[in-house]
Amino acid sequence: MTGSGARIPETGTDRQVLLDRMQAMRVADVQWRQNKAFGLVYRHSDAHTELIKTAYGLFLSENGLNPMAFKSLQVMEREVVGMTANMFHGDADAVGSMTSGGTESLLLAVLTYRNHARRKRPWIRKPEIVVPDSAHVGFTKAGEYFDVRIVRTPLRADYRADVAALESRINRNTIGIVGSAPSYPYGIIDPIQELGEVALRHGVPLHVDGCLGGFFLPWVEKLGHRIPPFDFRVPGVTSISADLHKYGYAAKGASSIIYRSLDFFRDQIFAEVDWCGGVYGGATMAGTRPGGAIAAAWASLHSLGQAGYMENARAVMEATRIFMDGVRAIPGLCVLGEPEMSVFAFGAKDNRISMYAVADKLEQSGWHVDRLQRPESIHLIINAGHGQVADRYLADLRAAVDHVAAHPETALEGQAPMYGLIAKAPLRKMVKRNVVNILAQLYIQRETGADDEEEVGADSVPKPVMQLLRLKMRIRRMFQRPKS
Fold it and tell me: 149: domain range?
């Protein structure tokens, strides 16, 4: 068996050579510094970036695994959690921890609800958590990890959770329900107050996923925008997750999960006392926890303060208004629902316009595009810097829409048909296997040849099925009429 292609060099490489090579690697990355990406990177300012880089570097080697050894990290994490809980109107009983990101926060929420049910309702053998269809896919991942069935329920026509539909799926195996503030796809806040009433009525906990909006919505509300209550002001809300490395503008690797009381948080904690390596315990999924991420989050909150976050929210919401108004002014396009913050999706009122073809045209103009399915749409997450490129983006968008409207065959060119077919293909398990194979390819060490490519594509959608789906798409494009 031969080794992989990459090997540790026999001697060290010059520092500057390494830095130059790393800079060269970045050429093909998304151009977020030019505000070409909507999401992935959240940037406040150059000065703030330098601060959190310095803060991270000061605690580069410190390890949050043992808070007794690094008391500085314990102090900072407690303050971050305390400030976050206070922002969400938690009282003195609110408690929680920092995590490595939104996905870990959601994983911990599901794990905690499962453990709590095991402790309080041990007769439940097949636990379920009921979520709206727009709830983040991290819940599905958590369900697979912890053997909890995630029950998805339909949305209302305005893309909010259908509370009646969600309540109808609660049964004796239900160990929790979920609402989003806002949902990642649409930037729309679910009816958290109504969900809280459902939670109290059925005696189940309610988790609010505020990973995206948790560090933004409070400041938008203070600016006078109408934001429906989504935090601990709502009776029935048990826990809230919120990412510091999004609109909290901390360094990546920083999120939080806050519980109303210790009664649930204790079920997040792992402890083992009989291991030969000694007594071991931890509040999160990770063992080693980067001290730099904790320090940078602490520095970010203290540096910006409420005034800084409110000023940022004002600039971001103004940029969002420009983008939304610009999208609505383009014939044939519409914003999906009525988003409350700086996250939204837009699609086509005219079904003959392929939004995936529009996305292809935007990418040809240098924009990084996030595509959604059901309905076919484009997704934007706005930061203040996007205000500088709004006119250019909207001009490119209008040109893309005009081109696709004039050339409907573009729906069958580029990546557009692939996205369209994947979104609509009936053989979902086969599509899933194909996605797994594609991702696996990214991690294979040995060089691949034609035989390997054929092997990896073995679980792809069969050619006859693909041809049938393409024909179906072509016929639909020919006979579709604009939405009323």
Answer: 55-301
Q: Residue 440: its pLDDT value, please? A: 77
Query: Is the sign of the CA dihedral 171, 175, 180, 183 positive or negative?
Result: negative
Q: How many CB atoms lie within 10 A of CB 39?
A: 18
Q: Residue 282: inside a domain, yes or no?
A: yes
Per the rule left: phi > 0, alpha: psi between -120 and 50, beta: everything else, 253 is: left
Helix H or strand E encompassing 27 = none
Q: Tell me if 474 sits within 8 A of 412, measured CB to CB.
A: yes
Q: What is the pLDDT of residues 39-75, one digit of tens each?
A: 889 999 999 999 999 999 999 999 999 888 999 999 9
DSSP state of 162: -
Q: Which amino acid is at 326?
A: G
As for how many domains the chain has, the answer is: 1
How many C-beta neighbours within 10 Å does residue 67 have?
A: 17
Q: Which of 297, 251, 283, 249 is nearest to 104 (CA)?
A: 283
Is 398 or 469 the better-scoring residue by pLDDT?
Answer: 398
Task: Determine the Cα–Cα distance for residues 308 and 313; give it in Å rounded to an integer.
Answer: 9
- Asked, for residue 164, whether it belongs to a domain, the answer is yes
pLDDT band at 456 (very low <50, low <70, confident <90, very high): very low
